[in-house]
Structures are given as structure tokens and as C-alpha cells.
């Protein structure tokens, strides 16, 4: 039987290789390591209603199923996208009977709980409150905004993180060798191809497995009967323009260099172009976000303090929503940083301070700057003659804050650009 004929009778690969126990789950070590409180609760069958919050394909449904299996509880899954609250209520009535007559708990699992409106969520409250069911919910949205406070207060929130490149690769390798996966399909796939799939799946195991299965189904056998999976074929299948580059090679560093220099040079259009080149070639968006954070302090600094806030927010967006959506957050940050006033005064100031710190590290802290925590310290002069700035006009007072050896030394020389020029220049002069 040919590959397509085999596959037509099979569930999707992601379903066929779904983990059956906690040890088979890849990732989420903060929840699943042997000494984690969450794992101990599950193993001891100390079940409670909860919500799994995280991006798609990180194991929310799998965890819910395994918890039910380990607790020997009934498991009734729903998707809030296409389920009415009356359907859930009917399932809850059956759960109540099982608990009353057979002492067996029921886990009601509601995926995409954020699709339930306020009234639908309200209807769940009495059952959760009375402990008639164990409610496990899953959402990709922030529960603080999408779940009504009375219900949220009765659910313990557990965060699931996007899977790393290495974790996605591990999942793909397991699928290739899994007896229910692709073991019988004679696949040959390189580490480079696995990494490519991991990058374009953006932390979503389901997407990665779907790509691998699609590539396998469309591949042709070579003369040795092997099905060789290639990057070019994957990109064609996904209708992607092939822009990939060696992430450890010269071209990668050329692109990031062009990107940073464009933003530093206040060319937003060039910054956007190089950003798109990198992202469409599979560059890790978090790497770009980190470089923007560095640039915000190094090349903008106090000329626009909001630059650091914008860059940090872009990193958080990358961590939470992943690609392709986070590309817009990076584009927004790129434009903001490119058009912000520039200053490297913070960068120069810290390097000068660091140079002195390394050569005068034995200089004691002046007594008046030390905190007299005990009576003995006070007796030895700790804090003596310290001038508390708030006791003086404008909350400022002249006194020596450096070791005597460095008295009068200046490090920070604000520019006259942006916020720095308006607010810092006269104060530091």
C-alpha cells in the first residue's frame, strides 16, 4: 500500500503520537519536572479546577487528557468555539450522577474557553464552586481579560511556554521513530531540515508535526527507497519564498549588522526591509528583539526613555504570540527606535564608570553613605552627616557620593537631543 493510501486511513500525525503520560511530554519543565509542585499534585491525584494558558501547540489538551487518565476520572472534552452551554450542562448532570452513585470524578475540559461569553462562563460557577466537577480550561488569551473574575478566582492558572527549537526537534524525531508515527515510511531527514521546520513552526508542536507529515506525504522515493525531506520542498509546500540562510554563517551576521546600523542611522524603511529579510528567512524573532533592547539603551538611551519600554514590550509580544503575528510588534519597535532621537551618552558613561570600578574596587564606601543597621554601626560612624535629599529644596543636595579618590569625577555627559537635552543636561551640568 502506498503512502497516500496508508495515510488516508490514519488520524493526523499529531494525534497519533500524542503523549500518553507525563514523561513523554517534551517541554514545560517548570510544570513537569519530578520535583515540581504541579506534577506532585497530579501524581497524588489532588485534582483542582484550573486553566492552562499558553500559545497553540504547547500541550494544553494533552496535559488535560493525561491528568484525567492518571486520576481515573471521566474525561468530557468540549471546544467553546462550537459548544453551547446547554451541552456542557448536560455533561455536568451526568458527572454529578457518576460522583453520587459511583464516587467517580469527571473532568470537564473546555478548550478555547475565551470564546464563552460572560453568561456562559457564569453558568459554570455553581458547579465549580460546589466541587461537582473538575473544570480544566485551555486558552491562548490572557485569562485576566477573557475570564470573568468570579470564575477566574476559582481556577488555578498554569502558564505553558512556547516550545524551544530543540524541543520541537525532539518532538519531530520522536514522531519519525514512533511506531504509530512515521517509522514505517523510511524517511531521511537532516538536522538542518529539522531545525528549519522547528523555526517556521514558532514553538507550536502541532504545526511542526503537520509540516513534517505533509512533507512526508508529498516526498518521492530515491533509488534506495528512501523518502528524503528537503528544505526547498517544505518551502514550496508552504508557499514560502526560500530566503533561509545559515544562522551561524556570515550572511546572518551581515543581515543583523545591516538591520542595527539602519535603525541606529534613523532609517526606518531600511530597518523594516532588513527585519523582513531576517524574519522571512527563519531568524528567531527573540534574537532580533534582544538586539533591539540593546540598541534602545546603547544608541538612544535617555534621549527617549520610552524606546527601552517599546523594545522590551516587543520581546514580550514575541514570547507570547510567536510568529507570524509578532513580526508586527518587531516592525513597530523598529520604526519607533529608528525615528527616536539618538544618544550614546548612557553607553559611554557606563563604560567609563566600569573602567574606574575595575581599577578602584578596593576603595571603601564612605561612612556617610553606609546604612547604620545596628547600634554598633552607628557608633562607628555609619550614616553620620548624611544629608537626606528630601529635606532640601527640590529634593537635591550637594554632598560627596563617590569615594574620595574619585571625588568630582563625571561619567554622564547628556547630549542636547530629545528628552535627555530637555531634562538631564542642565541637571548634570
Could you explain how this protein is built, in words?
Keywords: ATP-binding, DNA replication, Nucleotide-binding. Belongs to the AAA ATPase family. RarA/MGS1/WRNIP1 subfamily. Pfam families: AAA, AAA_assoc_2, MgsA_C. One of its GO terms (biological process) is DNA synthesis involved in DNA repair. The protein is an alpha/beta fold. The chain has four domains: 28-159, Rossmann fold; 165-237, Helicase, Ruva Protein, domain 3, CATH 1.10.8; 250-339, Zinc Finger, Delta Prime, domain 3, CATH 1.20.272; 352-428, no CATH class. The protein contains 21 helices and seven strands. The strands form two sheets. Strands 2-3-4-1-5 form a five-stranded parallel sheet, sandwiched between helices. The protein has a two-stranded parallel sheet with strand order 6-7. The radius of gyration is 29 Å and the shape is globular. It starts with a helix and ends with a helix. 32% of the residues are buried. The mean pLDDT is 87.
Features:
429 residues, 4 domains, Zinc Finger, Delta Prime, domain 3, Rossmann fold, 7 strands, five-stranded parallel beta sheet, alpha/beta, globular
From the spread of the alpha carbons, the general shape counts as: globular
What CATH calls the topology of the largest domain is: Rossmann fold
Q: Considering the protein shown, what is the CATH homologous superfamily of the largest domain?
A: P-loop containing nucleotide triphosphate hydrolases
**Biggest β-sheet: count, sense, barrel?**
5 strands, parallel
Strand content: 5-15%
Low-confidence stretches: none
Number of domains: 4
Helix and strand content put the structural class at alpha/beta
Mean pLDDT: 87
Question: Given the structure, what is the number of helices?
Answer: 21
- CATH architecture call of the largest domain: 3-Layer(aba) Sandwich
The overall strand count is: 7
Keywords: ATP-binding, DNA replication, Nucleotide-binding
Organism: candidate division WOR-3 bacterium
Function: DNA-dependent ATPase that plays important roles in cellular responses to stalled DNA replication processes.
Domain AAA+ ATPase: 46-163
Amino acid at each position: 500500500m502506498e503512502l497516500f493510501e496508508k495515510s488516508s486511513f490514519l488520524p493526523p500525525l499529531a494525534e497519533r503520537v500524542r503523549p500518553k503520560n507525563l514523561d513523554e511530554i517534551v517541554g514545560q519543565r517548570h510544570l513537569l519536572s519530578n520535583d515540581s509542585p504541579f506534577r506532585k499534585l497530579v501524581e497524588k491525584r489532588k485534582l483542582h479546577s484550573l486553566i492552562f494558558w499558553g500559545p497553540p501547540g504547547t500541550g494544553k489538551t494533552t496535559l488535560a487528557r493525561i491528568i484525567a487518565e492518571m486520576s481515573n476520572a471521566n474525561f468530557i472534552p468540549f471546544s467553546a468555539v462550537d459548544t453551547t452551554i446547554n451541552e456542557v450542562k448536560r455533561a455536568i448532570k451526568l458527572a454529578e450522577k457518576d460522583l453520587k452513585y459511583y464516587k467517580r470524578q469527571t473532568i470537564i475540559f473546555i478548550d478555547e474557553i475565551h470564546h464563552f461569553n460572560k453568561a456562559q462562563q457564569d453558568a459554570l460557577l455553581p458547579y465549580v464552586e460546589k466541587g461537582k466537577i473538575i473544570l480544566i480550561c485551555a486558552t491562548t488569551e490572557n485569562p485576566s481579560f477573557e475570564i470573568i473574575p468570579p470564575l477566574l478566582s476559582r481556577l488555578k492558572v498554569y502558564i505553558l511556554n512556547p516550545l524551544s527549537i530543540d524541543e520541537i526537534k525532539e518532538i519531530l524525531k520522536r514522531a519519525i521513530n514512533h511506531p504509530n508515527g512515521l517509522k514505517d515510511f523510511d524517511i531521511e531527514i537532516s538536522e538542518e531540515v529539522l531545525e528549519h521546520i522547528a523555526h517556521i513552526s514558532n514553538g507550536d508542536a502541532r504545526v511542526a508535526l503537520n509540516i513534517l507529515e505533509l512533507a512526508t506525504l508529498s516526498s518521492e522515493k530515491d533509488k534506495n527507497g528512501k523518502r528524503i525531506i528537503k528544505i526547498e520542498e517544505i518551502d514550496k509546500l508552504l508557499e514560502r519564498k526560500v530566503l533561509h540562510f545559515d544562522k551561524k554563517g556570515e550572511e546572518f551576521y551581515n543581515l543583523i549588522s545591516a538591520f542595527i546600523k539602519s535603525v541606529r542611522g534613523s532609517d526606518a524603511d531600511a530597518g523594516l526591509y532588513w527585519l523582513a529579510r531576517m524574519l522571512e528567512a527563519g531568524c528567531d524573532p527573540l534574537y532580533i528583539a534582544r538586539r533591539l533592547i540593546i540598541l534602545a539603551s546603547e544608541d538612544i538611551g535617555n534621549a527617549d526613555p520610552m524606546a527601552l519600554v517599546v523594545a522590551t514590550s516587543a520581546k514580550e509580544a514575541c514570547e507570547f504570540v510567536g510568529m507570524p503575528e509578532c513580526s508586527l510588534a518587531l516592525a513597530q519597535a523598529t520604526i519607533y527606535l529608528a525615528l527616536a532621537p539618538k544618544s550614546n551618552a548612557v553607553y559611554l558613561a557606563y563604560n567609563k564608570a566600569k573602567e574606574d570600578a575595575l581599577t578602584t574596587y578596593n576603595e571603601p564606601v564612605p561612612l556617610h553613605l553606609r546604612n547604620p543597621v545596628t547600634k554598633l554601626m552607628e557608633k562607628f560612624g555609619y550614616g553620620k552627616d548624611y544629608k537626606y535629599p528630601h529635606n532640601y529644596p527640590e529634593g537635591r543636595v550637594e554632598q560627596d557620593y563617590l569615594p574620595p579618590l574619585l571625588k568630582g569625577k563625571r561619567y554622564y555627559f547628556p547630549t542636547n537631543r530629545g528628552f535627555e537635552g530637555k531634562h538631564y543636561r542642565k541637571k548634570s551640568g
